[in-house]
């Protein structure tokens, strides 16, 4: 549904995005994460047809991103949403509905349903007098006005209070359940982890790791085993009448089991803990920095 093939953007001699290649399948939620300046916004804007790539190509819903036809299939939410401050939410959304030639009765229904789903109160308040969370909801409603199959959201919930943030993340997740294809960037890795099927990690303009969360964890993360025994073994801590050891491999778990048996004890429970996306991200970032240092040396 979204296809980027060697997308590249340079500003003078500076490479903002270096050969980004990835596909987002129909109905998938794909997250792009990376530190400030990694090239996330530039990538999303190229896909939304707002920045012309220096190289490579991309399609959205089968249409080249440079075409106006592509825009009929896309809802784009920019990182900052400059809205017309003098308009009310309803008049602003009607204005965009007209731009997309949405029939009046369809627009009325869609605006009402979307604002209800987004729990937006004070629809007839001037946008300029709305809170940040409310204007973000209006911007999200705008991205849905043409009922697009594909949504590209740049940091949909950044800078909002925790309650509004959760609301927007859940709303985005519901859009995915309703069959939309979603590509979004985020700083908060917990959000990415909670709703994405696949993730790309960007650093210095390049995608440095990508895949399903399980795949990324396997390749760049660690698995830890929490082993609980009824006798003390070396390195264990006492917890509520049991002894807790942490092992990083099944061999280490086996060694704990043997140590417990040697003391006439046994393993009571084993719990597996996977790396969070944050740990995966930090591992990849550290590896990248180490590679850069080697390159510079
Ligand atoms: N118009 C421009 N002219 C020159 N450099 C630019 C321009 N737009 C972006 N850049 C640079 O390109 C790099 C990538 O920027 P981009 O906004 O895509 O990063 P990002 O990953 O979205 O960062 P953030 O998380 O802070 O939003 C940055 O170094 C930025 O300064």
Q: Can you offer a commentary on this structure?
A:
Keywords: ATP-binding, Nucleotide-binding, Transport. It comes from Halococcoides cellulosivorans. This is ABC transporter ATP-binding protein. InterPro entries: AAA+_ATPase, ABC_transporter-like_ATP-bd, P-loop_NTPase. The chain is α/β, with parallel strands linked by helices and about 300 residues long. It contains 10 helices and 14 strands. The protein has helices spanning about 40-45, 70, 90-100, 105-115, 130-145, 160-175, 190-195, 215-220, 250-260, 275-295, and strands spanning about 1-10, 15-25, 30-35, 55-60, 65, 75, 150-155, 180-185, 200-205, 205-210, 225-230, 235-240, 240-245, 265-275. The protein has a 6-stranded mixed sheet with strand order 6-7-8-3-9-10, with helices on both faces. A hairpin with a 2-residue loop joins strand 9 and strand 10 (about 205-210). The chain starts with a strand and ends with a helix. The site of adenosine-5'-triphosphate has 12 residues, from strand 2 and helix 1. Adenosine-5'-triphosphate binds near residues 37, 39, 40 and 41.
